[in-house]
Write a structure and sequence with these properties.
234 residues, alpha/beta, globular
Length: 234
C-alpha cells in the first residue's frame, strides 16, 4: 500500500514533464496531478501542434500548480529534462519527480516513487515498468540497454530506459545531465551511481496505447544510445 503523502510533502514536490506534440494526451495528465496537490514544471519542447495552448488552458485552472517553460524548436527529451531540472531548483523543492506527459504513466504511482524519498530509504528512485506487458521490440531494446548500462556504467538496474524517476533536490544538485535524447535515462542512472546516491527501484504501472507504443526506446533508438554511451566514455 502506498504511503499517504502529507500536504507539506506534496507542496514540496515538483513534477517535471517534457512535452512534444501532446495536445490530445497531456491535459488529463497534468490536471490529475494538479488535483492531487502537486506542482509541475512543464517543458514544451518546441511542439508544432496545440500542446502549448492546452497547457496554458490548464494553467488558468491551476495557476499555483503549473509553471511552463518552452523551447522555440524541438531539442529532444534530454534537453527538455535539462531545462526542467534547471528550472525546478528555482522553486526550492524538496522532491523532484520526472514522468512522461502522454498518459503512459499512472499519476497514482506518484506516491509509490515518492515513498522511499520521504521515508529516507533512498535519495533517488527509478520506476520499473512491467516488462511482460511491454511490446516485444521495446522489451528487447530495454534488455539490451540494461546490459549496456551494466557494462559501460557499472550499475545494474531492472529498467534502464524508464521515464518515471524521482530524486531529492539535494541529490539533484550533485548530478550533471548532458544527454540530448533518450540517453538521459541511462545517464541519470550513471550519475546517481557515480555520485554514490542511494537509489531504489519501485514497480510502476504502464498504460500502453498505439501512440505510446510508437514512442520510446526501440531497437533503432537503442543503437543510437549505444553510440552516444561509447562516445561519453572517451
Amino acid at each position: 500500500m502506498a504511503l499517504e503523502i502529507k500536504k507539506e510533502d506534496k507542496e514540496a514536490t515538483y513534477v517535471i514533464l517534457p512535452a512534444y506534440n501532446e495536445e490530445t494526451r497531456i491535459q488529463p495528465v497534468i490536471e490529475e496531478i494538479a488535483e492531487k496537490g502537486y506542482k509541475m514544471v512543464i517543458v514544451n519542447d518546441g511542439s508544432s501542434d496545440n500542446t502549448l495552448k492546452v497547457i496554458r488552458d490548464s494553467q488558468r485552472k491551476y495557476p499555483k500548480n503549473i509553471f511552463i517553460y518552452s523551447h522555440i524548436i524541438n531539442r529532444g527529451v534530454g534537453m527538455a529534462m535539462q531545462t526542467g531540472f534547471d528550472a525546478v531548483l528555482k522553486y526550492n523543492p524538496k522532491y523532484i519527480v520526472n514522468m512522461d506527459s502522454d498518459g503512459q504513466h499512472s499519476v497514482d504511482d506518484l506516491e509509490n516513487v515518492l515513498e522511499p524519498l520521504i521515508t529516507g530509504r533512498a535519495q533517488a528512485v527509478i520506476g520499473v515498468r512491467p516488462l511482460k506487458d511491454m511490446p516485444l521490440s521495446r522489451n528487447f531494446a530495454n534488455a539490451v540497454m540494461n546490459l549496456l548500462t551494466r557494462i559501460l556504467y557499472g550499475v545494474s538496474v531492472s529498467d534502464s530506459q524508464t521515464g518515471f524517476r524521482a530524486i531529492t533536490a539535494e541529490a539533484l544538485e550533485k548530478i550533471n545531465i548532458n544527454a540530448r535524447g533518450y540517453l538521459i535515462s541511462s545517464e541519470f542512472i550513471r550519475e546517481v551511481n557515480d555520485n554514490n546516491i542511494p537509489f531504489e527501484e519501485v514497480p510502476i504501472k504502464t498504460i500502453y496505447t498505439p501512440e505510446t507504443q510508437a514512442k520510446g526506446t526501440n531497437v533503432t533508438e537503442a543503437f543510437k544510445i549505444l553510440i552516444q554511451m561509447i562516445k561519453h566514455q572517451f
